[in-house]
Design brief:
The chain is an alpha+beta fold and about 80 residues long. The protein is built from 1 helix and 6 strands. A 6-stranded mixed β-sheet has the order 1-2-3-4-5-6, covered by helices on one side. About 20% of the residues are buried.
């Protein structure tokens, strides 16, 4: 994360990785990364798996509703 990029359903603004309008990972201003482990679909699970292995240490959140753009509010 750090540069913006866009695909049809997967894109980032450099801080938040969005898949089908839902945040999958978010870099906070303190440098920590929040990872959304909520289960949605098979294709999203694949993207979550790839993302999780790429980011390493992170804060994991669950129970994030579809369409959520800010993961910070789900930290526990």
């Amino acid at each position: 994360m750090g540069r913006s990029a866009k695909n049809r359903n997967l894109y980032t603004d450099g801080k938040v990785l969005i898949n089908y309008s839902t945040a999958i990972a978010q870099r906070l201003s303190n440098g920590n990364v929040v990872f959304n482990a909520t289960k949605y679909s098979v294709s999203t699970s694949k993207i979550q798996s790839w993302t999780r292995s790429a980011i390493g240490r992170c804060i994991v959140v669950e129970g994030v509703p579809m369409g959520a753009k800010d993961l910070q509010r789900y930290i526990g």
